[in-house]
Amino acid sequence: MKLFLPAMCFALALSLGSCTPSGRPMPAPVPVPQKMQPRCATAQAEVAETPELLARLLSAHPEKFKKIIDAAETYEVQILYTQINRDENNRPAFKQYSYRLNSHSYFNPASLVKLPVLCLALQKIRELRVSGLGRNTQLTIGKQHACQTSLAQDQSAPGGRATIARFIEKVLLVSDNDAYNRLYEFLGQQYIHDHLKSLGYPDVRIIRRFCGCDYDESRYTNPFSFYNDRGAIIYSQPQLVNPKPLTNPLPHLLRGKGYIDSHGKYVARPFDYSYSNNLSLADANGMLMRIMFPEAFPQQQRFNLSPDDYQFVYRYLSMLPGESGIDTYARQDRYPDNYKKYFIFGDAVGARTDMRSVPVRSFNVVGKTDGYLADVAYIADFECGVEFFLSAVIYVNSDKVLKDGRYEYGSIGMPFLAELGRTLYEYELARKKKFFPDLSCVRTATHEPEYRSRNSE
Questions:
Q1: Residue 184 located in a structural domain
Q2: Which residues contact 367 (CB under 8 A, 6 or more apart)?
């Protein structure tokens, strides 16, 4: 079997200027300046832009990648890299390259499914059109079915106010599972799948909470109540039930030689993912592209978010846990800056100094479970004019036993993704561009107090 599939290359020409989610046009870029920051200066890229670009880049660095590419099938590696080129009006065009990309080869997406769920939660609030109802509206959650849990307060929030916004913040900052469960419950299975299908994702399945509830229990989702500032209910949502059971649509869903069941016992047969979530790397990457560049896609393929929703999502997609102001996330021993930033910084212990010394931001979501490690990211260097999308997954489970917590995340998976991110970042630094992009729209949405203050004067 070949180690890679032919690269997928295409360009998307846009008819609208960038930064339209905020409702203001972005200044046009200028030709690439002759003098840039010293760290931005680099030799011209030596790897030619052929359809096999990613395979050539990996092969050009055997000290980093030989072990992986020599056993790429075992590691189930998939990579998708998207170049972004701006024109004289700052409009982006995209060109993609892939390595072993296969949407029919299943991997457990884990927390990658949180990205569409949080966007759909913002969309649902917008579409309800209830006066006073927004992402910051206080809520409570009831219980009416087995495996459901109620919620009256969120102890991480000021005054204990549970809100959709707070759930999204926790999902994007530290990939909080309970916060994801609450967003999933607000939407309900049927809403999730009806809307993802209408957006062009018929094979996506988000049919499980992350809390031990079985497949059937996850069809039932909790009742919600939303309150105004006087404590009066302004919107009530009853328990929702998806009447149509959904299963994973992909073939060949058995993995491993055995697994540890919910009672801690070893089961000597492959694990069956037929009743598990499914989100391909290509679909996750496409969703992030639609979030970062909504104007690049037809209206019917975009999430229905407001300009303010986009800015909110951008801010927390890129924010580091310690920048959030949430006391629990300030603990570097538990939530280092690279807690969910696998590309470039994933193998650095702590990574506080490196991640804050240069204006490089990763707007991303990650997945980590059952030996699968994934990152889906838009990476931007605001000073050097670098921007690109990178998505990848690797499987690191040498004993082929699932659910035992014994995986090579730290020794193989994280170093691979970090080196992959650095390799593509260095390639982008060296790649010639006709126009230097203006990334101020995205940068002002990040947590960079000095920059935000300077640009608000």
A1: yes
A2: 108, 109, 110, 111, 112, 373, 374, 375, 393
Of the candidates 362, 177, 161, which has an alpha carbon nearest to the alpha carbon of residue 277?
177
Cα–Cα distances in Å, from 412 out to 309, 364, 398, 447? 37, 21, 11, 31
What tens digit of pLDDT does each residue of 328-358 get? 999 888 999 999 999 999 998 655 556 777 7
* Type of residue numbered 394: I
Question: Considering only 34-43, 159-168, 189-198, 432-441, which range has the smallest mean pLDDT?
Answer: 34-43
> Mean pLDDT over residues 245-255, rounded?
96
User: Does residue 256 lie in a domain region?
Assistant: yes
Instruction: Give the three-state DSSP class for 290.
Output: helix
Residue 132 CA, chain-centre distance (Å), reads: 29
Strand 224-227, strand 138-141: pairing = antiparallel
296 within domain boundaries: no
Which of 111, 104, 108, 84 has the alpha carbon at shortest distance from 96? 84
Tell me if 417 is assigned to some domain: no
Identify the band that residue 10 occupies on the pLDDT scale cut at 50, 70 and 90: very low
Predicted TM-score (pTM) of this structure: 0.91
- Pull the structure tokens for residue 28: 């046009």
Residues ≥6 apart with Cβ < 8 Å to 229? none
Q: What is residue 391's three-state secondary structure?
A: strand
Per-residue pLDDT band for 37 (boundaries 50, 70, 90) equals low
- The span from the CA of 259 to the CA of 268, in Å, is 7
Residue 262: CB atoms within 10 Å: 8
β-pair type (401-402, 220-221): unpaired
116 three-state secondary structure: helix
Q: Write out the H or E segment, with its range, that includes residue 171.
A: helix 164-174
Residues 6+ apart with CB under 8 A from 264: none
Q: What single string gives the DSSP state of each residue in 35-93?
A: S--GGG--PPP-S--STTHHHHHHHT-HHHHHHHHTTHHHHT-EEEEEEEEE-TT--EE
3-state SS, residue 180: helix
Q: How many C-beta atoms surround the C-beta of residue 107 within 10 A?
A: 25
Pairing of strands 258-260, 266-267: antiparallel
- As a whole-number percent, the residues of the chain with pLDDT over 90 amount to 79
At 45, which amino acid appears? A
Q: How many domains does the chain have?
A: 1
In terms of residue numbers, what domain contains 162?
A: 111-271
